DNA sequence: GCCAACGTTGGC
DNA sequence: GCCAACGTTGGC
């Protein structure tokens, strides 16, 4: 069992969009970074814990808990010429971008980035490291435990 | 809107 | 394989 933080811009897809989705689940499409892709393709397992994070918004931070709800499969948007995520170099026979489904566990109170930065228990979080921009980052078991407890 | 930091691209 | 130029992310 592993844990992850996954960023989404709420203007694009928010925690409420996830709550309103069929089965409260969504394919995590649009990731176009190899390291983030590799986390989904090679390391995520069904049931892994996910911190659902809003970025590029008024109050960036964790807005809820989710979980990985599928094994990896090709991101369809890479083949869709009308999608902003279209990748002309991707082929059906050789997909370049893989994703997993993410399912809502529960909305929580907001754990803002500002608050996260004040918590010594979270000082080593990958996503808080200077210069980190990755949309998917690993979360340690200790960090996960602390955050889920802290949000109760 | 700014800009620091980083990833990717492509010429050599 | 290097690395400058460029594009993107994301907090502020």
From TrEMBL:
Residue stretches making up the EVE domain: 2-149
InterPro entries xref list: 5hmC_binding, EVE_domain, PUA-like_sf, THYN1-like_EVE
Keywords noted in UniProt: Phosphoprotein
Q: Which SUPFAM superfamilies match?
A: PUA domain-like
Q: What is this protein called?
A: EVE domain-containing protein
């Amino acid at each position: 069992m592993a844990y992850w933080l996954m960023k989404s811009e709420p203007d694009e897809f928010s925690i409420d969009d996830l709550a309103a989705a069929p089965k409260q689940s969504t394919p995590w499409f649009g990731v176009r970074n190899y390291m983030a892709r590799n986390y989904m393709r090679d390391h995520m397992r069904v049931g892994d814990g996910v911190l659902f994070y809003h970025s590029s918004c008024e109050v960036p931070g964790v807005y809820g808990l989710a979980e990985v709800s599928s094994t990896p499969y090709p991101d369809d948007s890479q083949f869709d010429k009308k999608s902003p995520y279209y990748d002309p170099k991707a082929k059906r026979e050789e997909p370049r971008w893989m994703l997993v489904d993410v399912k809502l566990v529960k909305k929580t109170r907001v754990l803002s980035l500002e608050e996260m930065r004040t918590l010594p228990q979270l000082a080593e979080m990958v996503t808080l490291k200077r210069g980190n921009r990755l949309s998917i980052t690993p979360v340690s078991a200790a960090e996960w435990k602390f955050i889920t407890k802290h949000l109760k």
